[in-house]
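Dataset card, provenance and construction

Sequences and ligand SMILES were collected as paired inputs. For each pair, a complete structure of the chain with the small molecule in place was predicted and serialized as structure tokens. The example below shows a pair involving S-adenosylmethionine. Curators did not alter the output after generation; any descriptive sentences attached to a record were derived from the structure itself.
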Amino acid sequence: MAIRKATDVFHDWALAGKDKGMEKGHSSAVGEMLGFIFQHVEKKQEKFSAIDVGCGNGWVVRLLKEHPLCSSAEGIDGAEAMIAKAKQIDIEGDYSVRQLPEYAPSKRYDIIHSMEFLYYLEDPKSMLKLFYDNWVAKDGWLVVGIDHYLEHEESLSWPEHVGVHMTTLSRQEWKDAWHDAGFTNISSWQAGEKDSVTLVIAGQKVD
Ligand SMILES: C[S@@+](CC[C@H](N)C(=O)[O-])C[C@H]1O[C@@H](n2cnc3c(N)ncnc32)[C@H](O)[C@@H]1O
């Protein structure tokens, strides 16, 4: 199968209504990720800004916005039809078409959430460094869910099956990448109801 750009494939998925299936499939793991985020912001009792990178139809942005301490939440994705869907569901919402790693934000965020996006990049380790240097505010968090990694054997056939590039790293390589990018207070766990296949990694920018 010819290799296509991930954002072209997901554009087609949105047109075919497959975004809803992803939302359902990812909801349990994302629930745990949001639980982690909300626990930290509630401890601090300060307003927080958030962005969901690779937001699909924007469902996580809408969950973030529901939190009483959330001052702003936005979503970005490189697939036009995903963002069109997000705007259709939530006309007031802040959703934009952005290609990573090229896009650089003009502000920093207290929370960066990203589910099932990072490994589509050719060089996810450099993206983590960009997140650390240019995206996360001081004391802010990067919380990411990853289902494609070396130890998740079933996921190793996905690049060929879907016809897109995926960067395959081991659990340890992913965790090391958070450390190498500069994050501290790194924690990771396996999340999700079906065999807990989602590798979640969270790290804080403390300086
Ligand atoms: C597996 S989907 C996950 C969507 C959403 N996070 C969810 O859980 O429903 C991956 C998303 O990342 C986006 N994406 C992949 N590579 C990207 C890139 N280089 N720049 C921007 N978005 C990208 C795709 O368009 C797609 O919507």
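Derived descriptions for this record:
The pocket of S-adenosylmethionine is lined by residues 6-7, 10, 22-23, 26, 54-56, 77-79, 82, 99-100, 115-117, 120-121 (CB under 6 Å).
Residues 6-204 form a domain with the Rossmann fold fold (CATH 3.40.50.150).
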